[in-house]
Every structure is written in structure tokens, then in C-alpha cells.
Amino acid sequence: MEKLSEGTLAAIGRMTVAAVELEHVLAWIGADQAGGDVEAVFGRAGEPLRAARGSVLFAAADRREEYARLVEAAAAQLAISQGALRAMWRGGRADAEQFDEIAAMLLRCGNELESMVTADLGARR
Fold first, then answer.
1. pLDDT tens, residue by residue, 71-107
2. Of 57, 10, 3, 48, whose CA–CA distance to 29 is shortest?
3. What is the pLDDT of residue 2?
4. pLDDT digit string (tens) for 100-124?
5. Separation between Cα atoms, residue 79 and residue 111, nearest integer Å
6. pTM (two decimals)
7. How far apart are CA 15 and CA 9, in angstroms?
8. Annotated domain spans of the chain
9. Burial class of residue 110 in the structure, from the number of CB atoms within 10 Å of its CB (0-12 exposed, 13-18 middle, 19+ buried)
10. Which of 26, 90, 82 is nearest to 52 (CA)?
11. What separation in angstroms does the CA of 28 have from each of 18, 23, 24, 38, 112?
12. How far apart are CA 33 and CA 47, in angstroms?
């Protein structure tokens, strides 16, 4: 892999933090799948998304479709972030703008999910 600029490395870091933040929101949503223990869900790779998908089944009927859409959007954004890193390793695009765009999408997705849950439950993470 070529040497990355400081700007690109910083953007990768921002994207990584945004992905972890989104996974924490998913863990919060899916915590009912682990007796309410967010950290138990968050601490296992892949578990936040799996648990959040499971929790969607128990959402109010009138909100279930919207929750499902947002959780699947989160899944797509996480896959995009992982794909971008893997592509870079294979010699693909490696510029800060790309990683910052992905980070912004990850953050937006997490904010939408958190806002929805907060509005429904009146609770914050």
C-alpha cells in the first residue's frame, strides 16, 4: 500500500470513529436483545447490527417499517465504509474527501436513528 497523506489518514480515522458511533447507536437499539445491556451488544463484532435488526421486530407497528429502513441504511453505510478501506488496500481510491463523505453519511444515519428512538422512548443513550 502506498504511503497515505496525513489528511487521508485523519479522514480514515474520522470515518472509523463515525462507524463505531453508528454501531453504538445500533447496540443501544438492540440492547433489549441482551437484557438491556448495551455494552454486551456493543462488545461483540457484528452484534450491534444483528441485535438492532432483531429489535425492529418489536417496534410499534406504525414505526416498524421506518426503523427497518433506517437500520438497513445503517448496514449499507457500514458496508460502504468497510468496502472503501478494503478497496484502498487493493490499490483503489485513497483520498480524504471519499472517507469524509462516508463519515458524514455514517453520522447522519446514526443521528436519524438516535433521533427516532429518542422521540419514541423519550430516552437518550
1. 999 999 999 999 999 999 888 888 999 999 999 999 9
2. 48
3. 60
4. 999 999 999 999 999 998 887 766 5
5. 18
6. 0.90
7. 10
8. 6-121
9. buried
10. 26
11. 15, 9, 6, 5, 14
12. 10
